[in-house]
Design brief:
Elements (H helix, E strand, L loop, with lengths): L7 H18 L8 H19 L14
Length: 66
């Protein structure tokens, strides 16, 4: 289920934190979760680059309509 745009980072941070804790504990992942371990690794590297280059730009599409 997708997060509402206003809480997407909050919810994702919580879920990602749980993933990190499972890796630290050496939790064995099932056959469905295992492929996503590497996917998250690649995404985390891409996030770091995007974070370092982030420059907020106003976008009319992000504004809520009344």
């Amino acid at each position: 289920m997708a997060y509402m745009s206003y809480c997407r980072f909050e919810g994702t941070a919580s879920d990602f934190g749980e993933c990190i804790e499972d890796l630290k504990k050496g939790k064995v992942l099932n056959q469905y979760e295992e492929p996503y371990r590497h996917t998250l690794y690649k995404m985390a590297k891409e996030y770091i680059t995007a974070y370092e280059n982030y420059t907020p730009k106003p976008d009319d599409d992000d504004e809520e309509e009344d």
